[in-house]
Structure formats: structure tokens, C-alpha cells
């Protein structure tokens, strides 16, 4: 098994391995079959927000910014160039000329403005509208009083200026997420609510066919503005296939990528088989799995109790339960995220010390509580392991295994779920920046009814530090900003708002027929793979 | 007869109304907030509120139900929260696959069940009879996901005779049809056996033999048609049986029908789809029972509809 993206440093190495010269030697052509269990929900970039359609949308659409394939490094996409004003509040993007939508019309600055107006318009019901909160005039659009963002102006057909109401160091990342994809007005208006079934973008592929419940076919965009991309002529997504069936089909040469991954029951068998050694690629993920403790609900209002839980959980055993598909965590940020603290050691696994802490808190006899968990494998098994660890220090936790939506709903209530195991629900970063691991899940903004801060942890001092860090928009302040975030997350650990358990690793399996640098098969922003850069060996 | 049909139609409508109400109540009580679900994890409270309003989820229960019924009588099953598509369109696009699978299952269960029953009846109280009846008992009591996975493993993975799941050709259809039909085959073999034994005892069979007809002529010309009568009426009721089976079978075999749609929707708590598939299934069951009742007097004139 190849480990290519284990640490941040490795990620950069992998990135440099993917030089354009090398990519250009690859002949275009061929096709692949990707399988999925569930049908694709929508391909509308303003709406799509699950990991399955995320990467597909990236291949159909482009935004102003993107990431270098296989890395978390920002690069210009539809923007040929950009300038940032000294106060960090005005971004001026110069657009690439001659870029065409799949319907043949040229993309211009008007389309950029239209797309941003559309995604923030409440009628669009975009789950990503909140990402654009820093654009001037966002509030007026959000409350329905106007349909045009004041801060976004078309300077000329190839220049668009975006003014912010506050400095936002993450703004270029925001321009790289799917919600910022540029869409043509006429196609959106023609299909209305069904645009997601008839997507038209500027991306490397266009949608050729969609048979509900059966398959989608992506065809190479022959007019794509980026030379030599994509590599494949066609990608067929076959839906309705259980992961186990997908694996069998791959082994028989009938499919190329099992989109839902290697099924847990077969994981050891497949990864230990020398035949598949080179076909399985391991990579890091911007993911952390954690146990939240509701600081509003006694006894978790006591710091000692939260620390005790941190020290009681045997993280190595949890990692073994999922066959080593993760690395143990000691802080909220995943290792591949800027701001990760390599020197921080976290709370040790020390049940005796944990017991002492409980005694200090006056809970030497233990207490009873509830642990909420999403009811699909392996989460209940992980919860049982944590339950046993807690029992060892005297905490009797009853497991509440529920459907995903119900666990999320319970977490969003101030007094319902004392503990939640986040597996299968939270948190994978929307974009590779530490701020995305704070606001919604650890900041005061998230500690609201229906929010995702299930610990209900709200530290106003840290919120201030977070705002200050996100105001450092000057690229020269990059290191300073990272350091600020590093401190914030270590402070979170001092307060023991969570017990971080592990960071999931990704294992992508591919068929023998597919080629490409390992990094694109575990691309941090494309799951399962970066469709644009995979190539077929049989046409080389 | 006419008034009977009218009464049955009205009854059926009432049943459907009751089912729609019950399902709506159950789904309403689920502690999942659809607006939150649509809004996703990064949404602001304002976005969620705005979606709730646009979907009418802030209305009182009876108003929501009334809205749903109003849509329903206009043939509008609502719009899926997560699939972002009209539920009617999703179901319509998947219904042909489900009907095809049911047809395959009916053929399988009749072919297997009737043959087993016939052989068992003719070899009554022999080892063959006993083993066939044990087999039928296995068929009736085995969970379909077990049978499905076993068939898949043996005939698709090990022997490679059939594709591993999927849809499109005749070969794709064999294993799922067998799995779905296996349960019914168990029932039919038992019914066929007792029905056949019954008929073979009748005087007209003895008469037929006595007037010199060959054994097979008696069997297929006289005994079979009579033994089959009560069985045909059962096929309508099978549709209900299938409706519960397709959820499992379609998921195991990756068959793109409404059972798979329901299963995916249940996992993701996509309420409009669950509601739509439940209603369509209920309709199919009610229709199946209705047809079974209608056919009964045609087959056996002793039955009168009143």
C-alpha cells in the first residue's frame, strides 16, 4: 500500500511530482466506470453538498479559484489574475478570455456576478449561502430586500470586483468551493429547479446522460480551456451498487473505481492481498472524529470531567476497530491542515489519572450519561468501545444509536445529548483552512439551536482571537495567522471541549487500467478521485 | 355486482386515505428537521428559517397534511428533499424495473411452486414428498436477503453464470426474480399439493380413468385445471407480498426499482420519497386484493359478490 499524503510535507512533495510537463505526456482518451450505492442527488453547484456530488460538480463546473491537483494549494482557475487591496477588503479578479460554457456561449464577468447573486438568494435555498457572509451587501440579499449583491460589480466583461464588509483571510478559499461555481443564467432559467439534473458549466466534462437510479455519463468537454485536460473521454457513474458488489465487479474487471470505498468487511482481506498492493492508495483526509461533551449539561460543565473523558478513551483500540483506517487524534485539526500543532501531545491515555480527576470533581462513584451515535457501522461498534473505556473509570454511558438526522437534531438541542460520537456526520473541512474547523463546530455562532457545536462550547475570548486571525489577509501574514489558529485550537483542548479520537485516512482502490499520480487518487478536495486527471493506460 | 364494485372502490379509497394519514403522522413525529437537512451543516439560522417557510414546514400539522392531500389529488407527490426531484418522476422512472421484477417473480414462483406441489401430490408420503415439503418450508421461512446473497455468491461470484447485480438484460433478471419468487414458491407448492390431493380424490377423476384416458391426460386435462383454480386467485394477493420483498431484493441486487428508492430514502430520512413509495405500494396492494376478489367469481361461479 502506498502512503502518499500522510503529512502536510508529503502533500507538497506529491504536488511537485505532478508537474505539467509530466501531465502533458499523457494521451487523452479511454473511459472508466465509477460505482456508487446511492443515486446522485443533484449536480447544481449552488445546492450539491454531499461528498458524492462534490467531486462530480468540480468536474462539470469551474470557479474563480481552485486547488492544484492532489494538494490543498490554491491556484487560479477562471481567474487569470487577481489583486487584493491593502485593507484586504477588495478583490479584483481578471477573468480568462474565451472560456466557453457547455452550451457554447462565452463566460463573462456578468456570469460571475449572476452566480454569486444566485447562490446567496434565499429562493435558491443554497446550503452554502452562509459562506458568502463577508461580501458587502450579503445581509440585504439574505433577508430578501434585494437580489443583487452590492459588493460584487462588473467592471468590464473580463473584470469583476468583489468588496467585503470585513477582512476575510479565507475569501480565496470561498471562491474555490463549489458554491462559487460560475453558471450561465439562461440555462438556470430554462430548467428552474431542475438545473441540478441539467447542469451546464465550463468544466472539464459535460453531462451526457442521466438515467435516474441507473447511470450518469460524463463526456469530455472538447473545448475545455485548460490544455490537455481532462484525460478521459468518458466517465460512467453506475448507481445502486452496494460497495461489496462494487468491489467484486472491480476484481472481475467490470468497474474501475468503487466510489463508496472498500467495504469494511473486506478491507483487511483486500489490503493484505499482494495482488492489490499497487491498486490501493492511502491518503490523509481533512477529517476529525470526536466525542462532544455538552458543557451546559452537568456533570460535563466541570473541566475535570471533560479531561477525564479525554484520558479514558483508548484511541488505539478505536483505530483497530476500523482496521487501522485512521490515525489517533490529540487535537481538533487534522494533520494535513495548516495550523496543526506537531509538538502538542494531547491528553495521555491514563484511566487511573482519569479516575483521580473524577474524584477531584466529587464524582468518585461515577455517574450515568448517554452517548448518541449514528446507527451505521462502524459507529455503534466505536461507541461500544468508548462505552467500555468510560465504564472503566466509573461512567455508565447508555448508547443511543439513531438515524443520522436524529443525532444531528439531538446535538442541536441545548439539553438533549450529553455526549455524541461524531462519526459519519462531522467533521470534514469544506475547504483546507483552519477557520473552517472552528466557527460552526467550536465557536459561539455554532452553539445555537440547530447548530453543529454539539459541545455548546462558547468561549468569547477565543471567538475574538478567531476573528482577529481571519482578519490577517496579507499573504505575508500567513505564518502569523497559522500560529494564531494553532493557539486557538490548543486553548480549545485546554478547556477539553471535545475528546478528539481519530483522523480518518482515505483508501482509494482503482482498477489496473487506470493511471495517474497517487496524489490525485486521494486528492484532499476530490472524493473519491480527481476525475479530471485520471488517465486510461489502454490508450497510451 | 355494480354496487359491489362501487362499494369496494370507496372502501379502497378510505383505506388509502387512512394509510396516507398514518404515514404522514409517523413521519411528522420523526425528530428530524427537514429544513435543517436541506440547509446542510453550514447554513445560518436565517437560511433554515427561510427554507422552513418556503416548504410550509412552519404550518400546523393539519394544514401541512391538507396541503399534501391537495397535491395528492392533483397527482403531485411532492418534491424530494435530498434528491431534489419530483417524487412522482422518481417513482415513475423506477416503476418499470419493479414491475418487470414482479413479473419475473410470478413466473418463478408459479413454475417452481406448481411443479413442486404436483410432484409432491403424486408421490404423496414418499421421501420425495417429504423433502419437497421441507424445501418449501425453508422457502417460506428464509429471509430474502439471505437467499439473495447466497444465490449471488454461488451463481454470480463463484460460478459466474450471472452478472453480479445490475439491470438491463435477461441474465440480470434471473437471480432477483428467483429470490423474490422463492417465498411464494413455498406457499404455492403447499397449496398445489393439498389442492391436487383433493382433486385426485374426486369422483370425476376416477370416472376419467375408468373411461380409458391415459394417466397424463387425466392429470393435465382434468385434475390440473381444477386444482389451479384456487391458486390463480392468490396471485393478486402476492403483489402485497412482493411489495415488502422488493425493498430487500432490489437493494441486494442493485435493481433500480422503487424498493431500492425506498431503502435509500429511509436511510437518509427523505420524507417525501418514503411517503410516496408507501402510498404507491399501498395502492398496489389494495388494487391486487381488489382484482383477486373480482377474479374469484369468474373462476368459481359458486362465489357470488354481494
From TrEMBL, chain A:
PROSITE patterns linked: SBP_BACTERIAL_5
Coiled coil: none
Gene3D superfamilies: Dipeptide-binding Protein, Domain 3 (3.10.105.10), Periplasmic binding protein-like II (3.40.190.10)
Principal location: periplasm
InterPro entries associated with the record: Peptide/Ni-bd, SBP_5, SBP_5_CS, SBP_5_dom
Keywords: Signal, Transport
GO cellular component, one term: outer membrane-bounded periplasmic space
Residues making up the signal peptide according to the UniProt record: 1-23
Keyword presence, Transport: yes
Subcellular location as annotated: Periplasm
Entry annotated with the keyword Signal: yes
GO molecular function, a single term: peptide transmembrane transporter activity
GO BP field: peptide transport
Domain Solute-binding protein family: 75-446
Family: Belongs to the bacterial solute-binding protein 5 family.
Name the UniProt record assigns to this protein: ABC transporter substrate-binding protein
Originating organism: Roseibium aggregatum
TrEMBL record, chain B:
SUPFAM superfamilies: MetI-like
Residue ranges of every copy of the ABC transmembrane type-1 domain listed in the record: 95-296
Superkingdom of this protein's organism: Bacteria
CDD domains assigned to the protein according to its UniProt record, in alphabetical order: TM_PBP2
Membrane topology classification: Multi-pass membrane protein
Primary site of residence: membrane
Regions that span the bilayer: 12-30, 99-122, 134-157, 169-188, 227-253, 273-296
Keywords: Cell membrane, Membrane, Transmembrane, Transmembrane helix, Transport
GO CC terms: plasma membrane
GO biological processes: transmembrane transport
Cell compartments where the protein resides: Cell membrane
Family: Belongs to the binding-protein-dependent transport system permease family.
Name of this protein: ABC transporter permease
Gene source species: Roseibium aggregatum
Amino acid at each position: 500500500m502506498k502512503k502518499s499524503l500522510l503529512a502536510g510535507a508529503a502533500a507538497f512533495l506529491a504536488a511537485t511530482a505532478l508537474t505539467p510537463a509530466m501531465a502533458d505526456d499523457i494521451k487523452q482518451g479511454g473511459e472508466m466506470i465509477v460505482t456508487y450505492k446511492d443515486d446522485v442527488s443533484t449536480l447544481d453547484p449552488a445546492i450539491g453538498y454531499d461528498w458524492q456530488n462534490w467531486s462530480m460538480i468540480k468536474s462539470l463546473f469551474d470557479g474563480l479559484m481552485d486547488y492544484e491537483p492532489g494538494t490543498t494549494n490554491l491556484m487560479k482557475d477562471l481567474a487569470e489574475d487577481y489583486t487584493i487591496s491593502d485593507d484586504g477588503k477588495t478583490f479584483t479578479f481578471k477573468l480568462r478570455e474565451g472560456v466557453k460554457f457547455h452550451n457554447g456561449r462565452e463566460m463573462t464577468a456578468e456570469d460571475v456576478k449572476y452566480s454569486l447573486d444566485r447562490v446567496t438568494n434565499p429562493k435558491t435555498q443554497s446550503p452554502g449561502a452562509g459562506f458568502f457572509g463577508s461580501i458587502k451587501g450579503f445581509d440585504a440579499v439574505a433577508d430578501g430586500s434585494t437580489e443583487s449583491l452590492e459588493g460584487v460589480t462588473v467592471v468590464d466583461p473580463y473584470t469583476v470586483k468583489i468588496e467585503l464588509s470585513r477582512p476575510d483571510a479565507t475569501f480565496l478559499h470561498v471562491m474555490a468551493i463549489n458554491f462559487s461555481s460560475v453558471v450561465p443564467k439562461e440555462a438556470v432559467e430554462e430548467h428552474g429547479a431542475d438545473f441540478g439534473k441539467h447542469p451546464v458549466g465550463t468544466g472539464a466534462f459535460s453531462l451526457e446522460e442521466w438515467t435516474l437510479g441507473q447511470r450518469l455519463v460524463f463526456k469530455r468537454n472538447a473545448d475545455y480551456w485548460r490544455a490537455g485536460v481532462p484525460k478521459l473521454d468518458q466517465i460512467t457513474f453506475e448507481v445502486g451498487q452496494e460497495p461489496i458488489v462494487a468491489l467484486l465487479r472491480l476484481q472481475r474487471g467490470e468497474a474501475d473505481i468503487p466510489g463508496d470505498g472498500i467495504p469494511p468487511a473486506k478491507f483487511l482481506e483486500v489490503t493484505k492481498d499482494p495482488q492489490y498492493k499497487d491498486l490501493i492508495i492511502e491518503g490523509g483526509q481533512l477529517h476529525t472524529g470526536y466525542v462532544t461533551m455538552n458543557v451546559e449539561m452537568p456533570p460535563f460543565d466541570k473541566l475535570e470531567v471533560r479531561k477525564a473523558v479525554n484520558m479514558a478513551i483508548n484511541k488505539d483500540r478505536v483505530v483497530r476497530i476500523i482496521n487501522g483506517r485512521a490515525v489517533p487524534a490529540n487535537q481538533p485539526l487534522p494533520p494535513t491542515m495548516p495550523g496543526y500543532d506537531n509538538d502538542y501531545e494531547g491528553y495521555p491515555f491514563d484511566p487511573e489519572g482519569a479516575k483521580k480527576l473524577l474524584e477531584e470533581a466529587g464524582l468518585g462513584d461515577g455517574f450515568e450519561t448517554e452517548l448518541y451515535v449514528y446507527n451505521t457501522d462502524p459507529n455503534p461498534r466505536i461507541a461500544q468501545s468508548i462505552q467500555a473505556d468510560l465504564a472503566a473509570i466509573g461512567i455508565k454511558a447508555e448508547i443511543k444509536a439513531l438515524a443520522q438526522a436524529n443525532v444531528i437534531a439531538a446535538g442541536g438541542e441545548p439539553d438533549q445529548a450529553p455526549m455524541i460520537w461524531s462519526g459519519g456526520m462531522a467533521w470534514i473541512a469544506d475547504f483546507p483552512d483552519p477557520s473552517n474547523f472552528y466557527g460552526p463546530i467550536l465557536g459561539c455562532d455554532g452553539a445555537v439551536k440547530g447548530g453543529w457545536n454539539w459541545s455548546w462550547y462558547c468561549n468569547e475570548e477565543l471567538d475574538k482571537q478567531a476573528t482577529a486571525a481571519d482578519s490577517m489577509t496579507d499573504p505575508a501574514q500567513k505564518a502569523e495567522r497559522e500560529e494564531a489558529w494553532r493557539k486557538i485550537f490548543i486553548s480549545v483542548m485546554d478547556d477539553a471541549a471535545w475528546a478528539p479520537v481519530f483522523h480518518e485516512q482515505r483508501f482509494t482502490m482503482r482498477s489496473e487500467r487506470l493511471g495517474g499520480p497517487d496524489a490525485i487518487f486521494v486528492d484532499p478536495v476530490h472524493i473519491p478521485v480527481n476525475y479530471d486527471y485520471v488517465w486510461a493506460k489502454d490508450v497510451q | 355486482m355494480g354496487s359491489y364494485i362501487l362499494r369496494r372502490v370507496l372502501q379502497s379509497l378510505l383505506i388509502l386515505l387512512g394509510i396516507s394519514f398514518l404515514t404522514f403522522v409517523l413521519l411528522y413525529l420523526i425528530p428530524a428537521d427537514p429544513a435543517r437537512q436541506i440547509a446542510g451543516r453550514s447554513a445560518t439560522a436565517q437560511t433554515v428559517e427561510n427554507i422552513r417557510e418556503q416548504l410550509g414546514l412552519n404550518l400546523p400539522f393539519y394544514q401541512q397534511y391538507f396541503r399534501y392531500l391537495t397535491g395528492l389529488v392533483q397527482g403531485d407527490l411532492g418534491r424530494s428533499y435530498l434528491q431534489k426531484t419530483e417524487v412522482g418522476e422518481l417513482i415513475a422512472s423506477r416503476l418499470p424495473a419493479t414491475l418487470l421484477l414482479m413479473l419475473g417473480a410470478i413466473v418463478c414462483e408459479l413454475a417452481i411452486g406448481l411443479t413442486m406441489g404436483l410432484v409432491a401430490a403424486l408421490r404423496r408420503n414418499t421421501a420425495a414428498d417429504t423433502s419437497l415439503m421441507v424445501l418449501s418450508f425453508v422457502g417460506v421461512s428464509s429471509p430474502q436477503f439471505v437467499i439473495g446473497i447466497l444465490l449471488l455468491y454461488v451463481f454470480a461470484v463463484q460460478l459466474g453464470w450471472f452478472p453480479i447485480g445490475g439491470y438491463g438484460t435477461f441474465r440480470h433478471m434471473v437471480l432477483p426474480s428467483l429470490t423474490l419468487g422463492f417465498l411464494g414458491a413455498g406457499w404455492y407448492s403447499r397449496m398445489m399439493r393439498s389442492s391436487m390431493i383433493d382433486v385426485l380424490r374426486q369422483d370425476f377423476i376416477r370416472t376419467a380413468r375408468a373411461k380409458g384416458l391415459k394417466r397424463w391426460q387425466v392429470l393435465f386435462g382434468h385434475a390440473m385445471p381444477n386444482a389451479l383454480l384456487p391458486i390463480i386467485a392468490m396471485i393478486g394477493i402476492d403483489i402485497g407480498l412482493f411489495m415488502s420483498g422488493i425493498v430487500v431484493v432490489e437493494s441486494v441486487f442493485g435493481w433500480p426499482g422503487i424498493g431500492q428508492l425506498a431503502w435509500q430514502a429511509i436511510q437518509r430520512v427523505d420524507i417525501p420519497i418514503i411517503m410516496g413509495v408507501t402510498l404507491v405500494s399501498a395502492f398496489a396492494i389494495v388494487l391486487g386484493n381488489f382484482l383477486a376478489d373480482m377474479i374469484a367469481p369468474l373462476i368459481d361461479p359458486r362465489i357470488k359478490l354481494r
